[in-house]
């Protein structure tokens, strides 16, 4: 990859790299920092990374690994409390947006591996095999992280809804 | 695909990075490149400096060793000369004593 090609790669894939990091942390500032680091790493290795699918795979792998590293380094844990989620009852017209925001927060509160798997599966539309290659884990492990992650989100979401229903009954 | 999966997909869709993100990345990459190109020169200069410094040090050490050796050789030579002189002095005094004895007992 030449330097000019590097520039076009940054412009073309900035959205993807930033989104993975943003979905991982649910924090714009950290996501921007991680995304910048990923591209600077690519710049250092631009001679060895080939354009096309190899480059996209490299970017996805590198972003997820950097996110996990950043999280471990700073002990960045996002324990999302049910109370912190947006109040659906008071914001009926924007239900979809609120649901998406709630889901994003819940995903960012998952343990690192299920979180990464869910982001690659639903954010990047990758299949289990591709995710396995990206995260260097067997497809069966990817599958179990996927199931575990979705089950955790469902469980947290249910708890949240139950609390809202009970709150509504009390009123 | 279930509704839940559709919701997940929707909530994780790609988002635009902050404006100027690409420019910031490209500026930083240029900056890092300048740093990297400056580094070999710095390393070469440091190597030359070390080589010259090392050469001078080695030369000084060699000269010092040479001086030490010369000093040692001089000391040995002086010691030898001293002992020879003592021998000659002893012989002379013996000859002198004999001459005195011969004069007193002809």
Throw out a few tags for this protein.
heterodimer; A: 171 residues; mainly alpha; Rna Polymerase Sigma Factor, Chain: A; Arc Repressor Mutant, subunit A; 2 domains; 7 helices
Describe this protein's structure.
The complex is a heterodimer of chains A (171) and B (106). With 171 residues, chain A is mainly alpha-helical. Chain A folds into 2 domains: 1-76, Rna Polymerase Sigma Factor, Chain: A, CATH 1.10.1740; 80-171, Winged helix-like DNA-binding domain superfamily/Winged helix DNA-binding domain (Arc Repressor Mutant, subunit A, Orthogonal Bundle). Helix content of chain A is 74%, strand content 0%. Chain A contains 7 helices and no strands. In chain A, helix 1 (3-25) packs across helix 3. Chain A is elongated and about 65 Å long. Chain B is mostly helical and 106 residues long. Chain B has one domain (3-104). Helices cover 88% and strands 0% of the residues of chain B. Classes of the chains: A mainly alpha (171), B mainly alpha (106). The A-B interface holds A 6-7, 10-11, 14-16, 18-19, 22-23, 28, 32, 35-36, 39-40, 43-44, 96, 99-101, 103-104, 107, 118-119, 122-123, 125, 150, 153-154 and B 4-5, 7-18, 21-22, 24-26, 28-29, 32-33.
